[in-house]
Amino acid sequence: RMTAETRERIRETARLLGFRPNSLAQSLLRKRSFTVGLLTNDTYGRFSLPLMAGVSDALVDKGVSVFLCNVEDDQRLGQLHVEAMLDKRVDGIVATGKRIDRHLPVDLSNLRIPVVYAFTQPDPGAVGLVSDDADGARLAVEHFLRLGRRRIAHVSGPASFAVVHARAEAYRDVLKENGLAVREPLLGAWSEAWGHDAVAKLFGKAGREGWPDGVFCGNDQIARGVIDALRERGIRVPEDVGVIGFDNWQIVAEATRPPLTS
Asked: pLDDT band at residue 24, thresholds of 50, 70 and 90?
């Protein structure tokens, strides 16, 4: 209820004085804090940091800030962070982790604020966003087929991970659909060292005609180990053997030589 001239004069005075509105008081009036909490036990940040960047990009233009809390695998620590978020009256919580078949070590049910799960096991009936591992694996193997690769091996992580079985099943399905021989996937660790060891198993005994001409890896670390081991054997990538990773861990994929398809 003031003229434009008066409004502008007030704004200019506020700018000169460095005045800032009291966001806590505004939150009480609006019954919103314009903050969202993000809980994770992904201490490496491989999945949680890109996810946080996406959440922040989606919310920043709406005036909403995101803050990250690491719960590790400690139920007590997780509960402390949840209580702190509730005390700060966050508008919602995004729960994320390092695998989709494990729940965060904290109870987020019945909080009376929205909770969204991303890349972690959700509560029953909750909103959960997870990766489509089967279709991702299918895309990788089909890409090899389009390039003319026909002897495709699969090297992946521990059998205790649900994603390992989802990717391996899709790998088998694509090869069967195209009438190609299926090599039993090699399962090990999520590490470069395992990728290196897997090459010894795949390229050690059989003659060159029995070697794979494509290796689909369960993650980018394994793929990097595979590429290093092939280089040591004088096998060219991608001329002799194609290699595809999974997860698109950018810092690993871009630093691999040659740069990794993932």
From this structure: low
